Amino acid sequence: MPEINASKVSRWDGHGREHVVRVRRTGVQRTISCDTCGWRQGAQFLPWLKAQEHLARAHQATVDPTEGRDPH
User: Fold this and answer.
1) In whole angstroms, how far apart are CA 8 and each of 25, 30, 42, 50, 52?
2) What is the reported pTM?
3) Which of 2, 40, 47, 64 is deepest in the core (most CB within 10 A)?
4) Higher local confidence (pLDDT), 34 or 70
């Protein structure tokens, strides 16, 4: 049975709305899908970078909600 892993990339747009792209991995295949617009794409390499690019281009969502947080 294949192992399934998932993570997400979230960014906020200029209006304070959160947009999320999920990265799912099944074996060696990765699929990225946007919760906001339903866009989907296979991504063998750098899926998180492709997710960030989609959020910036399609939704003008470039503010990383994790930036500026103290990791401790």
Assistant:
1) 11, 12, 15, 12, 10
2) 0.82
3) 47
4) 34
